[in-house]
Amino acid sequence: MTSSLLYIDTSALAKWYLNESCSEVVESLIQGEGKVATCGLTSVEMRCLLARRRRSREIDPSIEMRVLAAFEEDAQAGFLVRLAFVEPLFSAASRLIASLPDVPLRTLDALHLAVMREHNLARLATADAVMAQAAAQLGIETLSIRE
After folding, report:
1. Rounded to 5°, angle at Cα 9 from 15 and 87
2. Model pTM score
3. Is 19 helix (H, G, I), strand (E, B) or coil?
4. How many domains does the chain contain in total?
5. Domain that holds residue 40
6. Can you give the three-state secondary structure of 57-97, one letter per residue?
7. CATH assignment of the domain containing 24
8. pLDDT band for position 147 (50/70/90)?
């Protein structure tokens, strides 16, 4: 049975925590869902995204720390459901890349899609065009958060 839980990747989830283009769309989406799914990769990607934005002076260190704290609080409260990430997902991600030879799917995006398949999730929110393309080709209902 497929879960109706929405998986949200980092490209879309960042818009929940940072005021940027399409943030209001993500806010409405998340509030309508009640809770959304992520995995441990999202934690690493969020940390990297915030550090990159701090280094480029788009945000200051205090905002970086506040966003990280809010992200962790949402996960602790169960608002962000962190799905298990297990070793066999590396092989599953590799197979996904091979199954989509014309899509320039990146490593972490393939891993996110493998997590979704492992947990029988059929809905994805993303702001990444390549991720949306890959998901659509895999038959995943894709909510593309883009201008």
Report:
1. 150
2. 0.90
3. coil
4. 1
5. 3-144
6. CCCCHHHHHHHHHHHHHHHHCCCEEEECCCCHHHHHHHHHH
7. 3.40.50.1010
8. low
How far from each other are the two terminal CA atoms of the chain, in whole angstroms? Answer: 33
Tell me if 61 sits within 8 A of 54, measured CB to CB: yes
Query: In angstroms, how far apart are the furthest CA atoms of the chain?
Result: 45
Residue whose structure tokens are 């959304």? 36
The reported pLDDT for the residue numbered 4 is 86
Q: How many C-beta atoms lie closer than 10 Å to residue 8's C-beta?
A: 28
Residue 2: per-residue pLDDT: 57
Segment 51-69, tens digit of pLDDT? 999 999 999 999 999 999 9
Q: Are 143 and 123 in contact (CB under 8 A)?
A: yes
Q: Amino acid identity, residue 5?
A: L
Q: What's the rounded Cα separation, in Å, for the pair 143 and 27?
A: 13
